[in-house]
Input
Amino acid sequence: AQSVTQLGSHVSVSEGALVLLRCNYSSSVPPYLFWYVQYPNQGLQLLLKYTSAATLVKGINGFEAEFKKSETSFHLTKPSAHMSDAAEYFCAVSAPGGKLIFGQGTELSVKP
Amino acid sequence: NAGVTQTPKFRILKIGQSMTLQCAQDMNHNYMYWYRQDPGMGLKLIYYSVGAGITDKGEVPNGYNVSRSTTEDFPLRLELAAPSQTSVYFCATLAGGSSYEQYFGPGTRLTVT
Output
Protein backbone atom coordinates (compact mmCIF):
# COMPACT_ATOMS: atom_id res chain seq x y z
CA ALA A 1 0.00 0.00 0.00
CA GLN A 2 1.06 3.56 -0.61
CA SER A 3 1.50 6.23 2.03
CA VAL A 4 3.06 9.66 2.40
CA THR A 5 4.54 11.40 5.40
CA GLN A 6 5.30 15.10 5.43
CA LEU A 7 7.69 16.11 8.18
CA GLY A 8 6.60 19.34 9.84
CA SER A 9 3.06 20.67 9.71
CA HIS A 10 4.34 24.26 9.81
CA VAL A 11 7.53 25.68 8.34
CA SER A 12 8.53 29.33 8.68
CA VAL A 13 11.31 30.96 6.65
CA SER A 14 12.49 34.49 6.04
CA GLU A 15 12.05 36.08 2.66
CA GLY A 16 15.06 35.20 0.53
CA ALA A 17 15.92 32.10 2.55
CA LEU A 18 15.97 28.51 1.35
CA VAL A 19 12.69 26.64 1.42
CA LEU A 20 12.86 22.91 2.25
CA LEU A 21 9.68 20.90 2.67
CA ARG A 22 10.16 17.23 3.46
CA CYS A 23 8.23 14.30 2.06
CA ASN A 24 8.81 10.58 2.52
CA TYR A 25 6.76 7.94 0.77
CA SER A 26 6.03 4.28 0.92
CA SER A 27 5.04 2.38 -2.19
CA SER A 28 5.02 -1.26 -3.20
CA VAL A 29 5.52 -0.32 -6.85
CA PRO A 30 7.67 2.32 -8.55
CA PRO A 31 5.93 5.52 -7.50
CA TYR A 32 4.71 8.57 -9.28
CA LEU A 33 5.08 11.52 -6.92
CA PHE A 34 3.53 14.96 -6.86
CA TRP A 35 3.71 18.24 -5.03
CA TYR A 36 0.59 20.40 -4.97
CA VAL A 37 0.16 23.91 -3.59
CA GLN A 38 -3.01 25.35 -2.07
CA TYR A 39 -3.45 29.07 -1.58
CA PRO A 40 -6.05 30.21 0.97
CA ASN A 41 -9.62 29.37 0.00
CA GLN A 42 -8.56 27.85 -3.30
CA GLY A 43 -8.23 24.42 -4.86
CA LEU A 44 -4.98 22.54 -5.36
CA GLN A 45 -2.54 23.42 -8.12
CA LEU A 46 0.17 21.09 -9.38
CA LEU A 47 3.69 22.34 -8.65
CA LEU A 48 5.62 19.43 -10.11
CA LYS A 49 5.54 15.69 -10.68
CA TYR A 50 7.94 12.78 -10.86
CA THR A 51 6.96 10.05 -13.31
CA SER A 52 10.16 7.95 -13.50
CA ALA A 53 12.09 10.20 -15.88
CA ALA A 54 14.74 12.56 -14.46
CA THR A 55 15.17 12.32 -10.70
CA LEU A 56 15.52 16.11 -10.34
CA VAL A 57 12.20 17.64 -11.28
CA LYS A 58 11.67 21.34 -11.90
CA GLY A 59 8.26 22.87 -11.37
CA ILE A 60 6.53 26.19 -11.47
CA ASN A 61 7.47 29.29 -9.45
CA GLY A 62 11.12 28.20 -9.05
CA PHE A 63 10.39 25.03 -7.05
CA GLU A 64 12.15 21.75 -7.62
CA ALA A 65 12.20 18.32 -6.02
CA GLU A 66 14.60 15.40 -6.09
CA PHE A 67 13.48 11.78 -6.10
CA LYS A 68 15.78 9.65 -3.93
CA LYS A 69 14.83 6.02 -4.07
CA SER A 70 17.35 4.93 -1.45
CA GLU A 71 15.87 7.39 1.04
CA THR A 72 12.25 7.05 -0.20
CA SER A 73 12.12 10.82 -0.24
CA PHE A 74 10.84 13.55 -2.52
CA HIS A 75 11.71 16.80 -0.77
CA LEU A 76 10.62 20.13 -2.23
CA THR A 77 13.06 23.04 -2.38
CA LYS A 78 13.28 26.62 -3.54
CA PRO A 79 16.52 28.58 -3.25
CA SER A 80 14.96 31.90 -2.27
CA ALA A 81 11.54 32.29 -0.64
CA HIS A 82 9.14 34.98 -1.72
CA MET A 83 6.20 36.32 0.24
CA SER A 84 3.87 34.93 -2.42
CA ASP A 85 5.08 31.39 -1.61
CA ALA A 86 3.10 31.40 1.64
CA ALA A 87 0.58 28.59 1.20
CA GLU A 88 -0.07 24.97 2.14
CA TYR A 89 1.91 22.32 0.30
CA PHE A 90 0.89 18.72 -0.18
CA CYS A 91 2.99 15.77 -1.25
CA ALA A 92 1.14 12.88 -2.90
CA VAL A 93 1.88 9.43 -4.30
CA SER A 94 -0.12 7.72 -7.00
CA ALA A 95 -2.19 4.60 -6.38
CA PRO A 96 -4.05 2.24 -8.74
CA GLY A 97 -6.91 3.87 -10.63
CA GLY A 98 -5.07 7.16 -10.83
CA LYS A 99 -5.88 7.85 -7.19
CA LEU A 100 -3.68 10.09 -5.08
CA ILE A 101 -2.62 9.40 -1.52
CA PHE A 102 -1.82 12.71 0.17
CA GLY A 103 0.40 13.65 3.04
CA GLN A 104 -1.08 15.76 5.82
CA GLY A 105 0.26 18.99 4.38
CA THR A 106 2.86 21.57 5.39
CA GLU A 107 1.91 25.19 5.89
CA LEU A 108 4.68 27.51 4.74
CA SER A 109 4.95 30.97 6.27
CA VAL A 110 7.32 33.58 4.84
CA LYS A 111 8.49 36.38 7.11
CA PRO A 112 9.52 39.74 5.67
CA ASN B 1 -12.61 25.96 -20.92
CA ALA B 2 -14.01 26.22 -17.40
CA GLY B 3 -12.08 23.15 -16.24
CA VAL B 4 -13.60 21.67 -13.08
CA THR B 5 -16.51 23.52 -11.52
CA GLN B 6 -18.16 22.84 -8.17
CA THR B 7 -21.40 24.12 -6.73
CA PRO B 8 -22.25 25.41 -4.24
CA LYS B 9 -19.16 27.18 -2.85
CA PHE B 10 -20.54 27.22 0.69
CA ARG B 11 -23.40 25.46 2.44
CA ILE B 12 -24.67 25.10 5.97
CA LEU B 13 -26.75 22.00 6.72
CA LYS B 14 -28.64 20.93 9.78
CA ILE B 15 -28.02 17.47 11.19
CA GLY B 16 -30.08 14.90 9.31
CA GLN B 17 -30.56 16.97 6.17
CA SER B 18 -29.42 15.75 2.77
CA MET B 19 -27.76 17.53 -0.12
CA THR B 20 -25.92 16.96 -3.37
CA LEU B 21 -22.57 18.54 -4.16
CA GLN B 22 -22.22 19.12 -7.86
CA CYS B 23 -19.06 18.62 -9.91
CA ALA B 24 -18.79 19.20 -13.64
CA GLN B 25 -15.87 19.15 -16.05
CA ASP B 26 -15.47 20.17 -19.69
CA MET B 27 -12.12 18.49 -20.37
CA ASN B 28 -13.57 15.12 -21.41
CA HIS B 29 -11.53 13.37 -18.72
CA ASN B 30 -12.52 9.80 -17.93
CA TYR B 31 -11.42 9.72 -14.31
CA MET B 32 -13.11 11.76 -11.58
CA TYR B 33 -12.56 11.87 -7.83
CA TRP B 34 -14.12 13.27 -4.67
CA TYR B 35 -11.87 14.19 -1.75
CA ARG B 36 -12.54 15.75 1.60
CA GLN B 37 -10.01 17.99 3.34
CA ASP B 38 -9.89 18.33 7.09
CA PRO B 39 -7.33 20.49 8.95
CA GLY B 40 -4.05 18.66 9.51
CA MET B 41 -5.31 15.55 7.72
CA GLY B 42 -4.52 16.25 4.10
CA LEU B 43 -7.05 15.06 1.53
CA LYS B 44 -8.87 11.76 1.83
CA LEU B 45 -10.52 10.03 -1.12
CA ILE B 46 -14.26 9.48 -0.75
CA TYR B 47 -15.29 7.97 -4.12
CA TYR B 48 -13.92 7.83 -7.61
CA SER B 49 -15.01 6.94 -11.12
CA VAL B 50 -13.01 5.65 -14.08
CA GLY B 51 -15.76 6.39 -16.57
CA ALA B 52 -19.48 6.88 -17.02
CA GLY B 53 -21.43 4.19 -15.19
CA ILE B 54 -18.45 3.03 -13.10
CA THR B 55 -17.83 4.15 -9.53
CA ASP B 56 -15.86 2.77 -6.60
CA LYS B 57 -15.24 3.53 -2.95
CA GLY B 58 -12.22 5.35 -1.70
CA GLU B 59 -10.79 5.55 1.79
CA VAL B 60 -13.73 7.30 3.55
CA PRO B 61 -17.01 6.47 1.71
CA ASN B 62 -19.37 6.06 4.67
CA GLY B 63 -22.25 8.54 4.63
CA TYR B 64 -21.83 9.40 0.95
CA ASN B 65 -23.07 8.18 -2.40
CA VAL B 66 -22.12 8.97 -5.98
CA SER B 67 -23.33 8.36 -9.50
CA ARG B 68 -21.74 8.92 -12.90
CA SER B 69 -24.28 8.93 -15.68
CA THR B 70 -22.23 11.17 -18.00
CA THR B 71 -18.55 11.88 -18.57
CA GLU B 72 -19.05 15.49 -17.52
CA ASP B 73 -20.82 15.19 -14.17
CA PHE B 74 -19.96 13.42 -10.91
CA PRO B 75 -22.34 14.47 -8.10
CA LEU B 76 -21.70 13.55 -4.47
CA ARG B 77 -24.74 12.88 -2.31
CA LEU B 78 -24.78 13.29 1.46
CA GLU B 79 -27.60 11.48 3.18
CA LEU B 80 -28.47 12.27 6.82
CA ALA B 81 -25.75 14.86 7.33
CA ALA B 82 -23.68 14.58 10.50
CA PRO B 83 -21.26 17.05 12.16
CA SER B 84 -18.40 14.72 11.18
CA GLN B 85 -19.10 15.61 7.55
CA THR B 86 -18.15 19.23 8.14
CA SER B 87 -15.26 19.63 5.73
CA VAL B 88 -14.07 21.11 2.48
CA TYR B 89 -14.90 18.90 -0.48
CA PHE B 90 -12.84 18.85 -3.66
CA CYS B 91 -13.65 17.27 -6.97
CA ALA B 92 -10.79 16.36 -9.31
CA THR B 93 -10.33 14.89 -12.77
CA LEU B 94 -7.63 12.93 -14.54
CA ALA B 95 -7.23 12.46 -18.26
CA GLY B 96 -5.70 9.02 -17.93
CA GLY B 97 -3.07 7.53 -20.19
CA SER B 98 0.35 8.96 -19.39
CA SER B 99 -0.89 12.26 -17.91
CA TYR B 100 -1.02 11.42 -14.18
CA GLU B 101 -1.94 15.02 -13.29
CA GLN B 102 -5.21 15.58 -11.44
CA TYR B 103 -7.06 18.86 -11.94
CA PHE B 104 -8.93 20.18 -8.93
CA GLY B 105 -12.06 22.24 -8.61
CA PRO B 106 -12.26 25.23 -6.24
CA GLY B 107 -13.99 23.26 -3.48
CA THR B 108 -17.25 23.32 -1.51
CA ARG B 109 -17.08 24.33 2.16
CA LEU B 110 -19.77 22.44 4.08
CA THR B 111 -20.75 22.99 7.69
CA VAL B 112 -23.15 20.63 9.46
CA THR B 113 -24.64 21.98 12.70
